[in-house]
Amino acid sequence: MPTGGGKSMIYQLPALILDGTAIVISPLIALMKNQVDSMRGMQTEDYVAHFLNSSLSKAAIQEVKNDVLAGRTKLLYVAPESLTKEENIEFLKNVNISFYAIDEAHCISEWGHDFRPEYRRIRPIIEEIGNAPVVALTATATAKVQHDIQKNLGILDARVFKASFNRPNLYYEVRPKYKPEAQIIKFIKQNEGKSGIIYCLSRKKVEEIAETLQVNGIKALPYHAGMDAATRSGTQDKFLMEEIDVIVATIAFGMGIDKPDVRFVIHYDIPKSLEGYYQETGRAGRDGGEGKCITFYSYKDIQKLEKFMHGKPVAEQEIGRQLLLDTVSYAESALCRRIILLHYFGETYKHKNCGNCDNCLNPKEQIEAKDEVVRALKAIIEVNEQYKAEHIANILIGNKTAAIKSFKHYTLKSFGSGKDHDDKFWNAVFRQSMIAGLISKDIENYGLLKMTPKGHDFLKNPSGFLLVKNHKYEEEIEEYAGTAGAPSGATGGDPILFSMLKDLRKTIAKKKNLPPFVIFQDPSLADMSIQYPVTMEEMQKIQGVGQGKAQRYGKEFLNLISKYVEENDIERPDDFIVRTVANKSKLKVFIIQSIDRKIPFEDIAQAKGVDLKNVISEVEAIVNSGTRLNIDYYVNDLLDEDHQEEVFEYFREAKTDALEDALEALGEDEYSEEDIRLMRIKFLSDLGN
């Protein structure tokens, strides 16, 4: 049954009615606590439900055992690790057990998204304690995982009940991973006060994102397995009690969490498998209300996940890679997200358009691909249905990989027959042929592609086949960058405003007898023409403008922008201020303090384990944003007075502050790039700040 479908009821109700105690095997301490609390909330006595795990003291364990032996406890929750302990096995032999319920049963299978070896030992232990009926429950299981569960628990003859995996209230969207922090903050601000979960793969990223959200005025806390138990359960309680709106977590959070009104689940990193994705997105909208599931995708993340697999046993790597390929297919496909997800779990979605995913709301172009499907099916038959999609795609495009050379597959008729397309196109053909039922994937054998009777019929009598063109996320990122407006170099978002800002800068520069770039540099003006800042606080967040610069020169620019925004009725971006927290700020403070103490740049670099160029770049950023730094002590050691004066005079007359122009004009044999950069810093600091 899908998450929130009521699986717990299936064992809670019989446990209360039957004689004896039901043993519920569950993987997470937080989940047990949650369930025990809710059971106790419905009964007059606490002893109706207990859990037995490593978080209890000796005295508490004794109390639990006394209640169970006295027959007062109806539900005893046990972690698989606790179940395997000899003392617990001996204790349970004396208990009248009504039945065993194995929750989150997908943990049994290596093909499940959360494999736990301890789950494999459940059957032998049940036999040792004493047989009783067994029920296994999960929210996510492909046909392969279902079979593994039954086989491993020795319940192949059990009756199987399956609810639809479709959650019609969930909206699915995959976005290019371009400036994800800014996109997340904008989304949360647009959904003010709603509860949400953000999943990241690493603990470090969890803490970084939580901190970024906090400084942007969002009530958020981190949650991961590296935190102590008290902090974790405190965070979970705050989320349930609505003291915070957002939890940023690794997948350690939320299994079985009983919060019905989670309104969004964001995946900062793409999950390792579609089961994991389905389980995590399933925590949204459990009350049947709105649930937005947004995932950020970049192929680089997939490559990172593949790297993590190196060093694991070969079979495990194969399984991991298969699961990842399915995730990539889901992300890059332009088909209805629901169709793909449900097909993955062995269910057919009857409609062509679900009306509640990004692909259905913004359909991609479709092309006639009858000829391509025929070529793909012929290639599968030519290799006797013994190879995976990746290998067959390489045959079609004529790519002589090591495997193709060793199997002499370059001699096949199909070799190079599809070189008019790339491998991603052919993968889309395989995926959509699979959904159309022309081919199937043999999971038992690492995903070999097999023909179906329907596929053989199609080959005999090919009919029209509309193929939906895939997303190309790297291209979409460029598109996104164009619209989301990161100024590159000196081009801005609003060309009219950009030229007005340049004119204003020229006027101020003349008045103050300074080169224009001392006031604000081009990238800063470009950013203003995108962001339209109208307050001093907003001005300080513009690229290359800090507090000093904003206060010194910002007022006239703000007046001009405010007037322009009003006259042209411009809608300003509502994700304007994305404050960042980074270790950079600590480095900046260290550099400023070191320069105040006249410490040579080389020593600053060594102390922070960075190279000299990095220190100079940081000093440039500090000075560009309006902070005055006195670096005379360092420059005087490098250049004599005449050379300093010559560079100063050059910048006083220069039209731009470009290094290349300065080096050409002043002579590369006379000055190094570092000399010019340092003198430019001194010039900007002395005159501009």
Can you walk me through this structure?
There is one protein chain. With 689 residues, this protein is of the alpha/beta class. It folds into 5 domains: 7-152, P-loop containing nucleotide triphosphate hydrolases (Rossmann fold, 3-Layer(aba) Sandwich); 170-306 and 326-345, Rossmann fold (3-Layer(aba) Sandwich); 366-468, Winged helix-like DNA-binding domain superfamily/Winged helix DNA-binding domain (Arc Repressor Mutant, subunit A, Orthogonal Bundle); 485-567, DNA polymerase, domain 1; 583-688, ATP-dependent DNA helicase RecQ (Arc Repressor Mutant, subunit A). It contains 33 helices and 15 strands. The protein has a 6-stranded parallel beta sheet. Strands 2-3-1-4-5 form a 5-stranded parallel beta sheet, sandwiched between helices. A two-stranded antiparallel sheet has the order 12-15. Helix 17 packs across helix 19 (423-435). The longest helix is centred in the C-terminal third of the chain and has 21 residues, at 547-567. The radius of gyration is 31 Å and the shape is globular. The protein starts with 6 loop residues before the first helix and ends with a helix. Mean pLDDT is 86; it is low at 482-492.
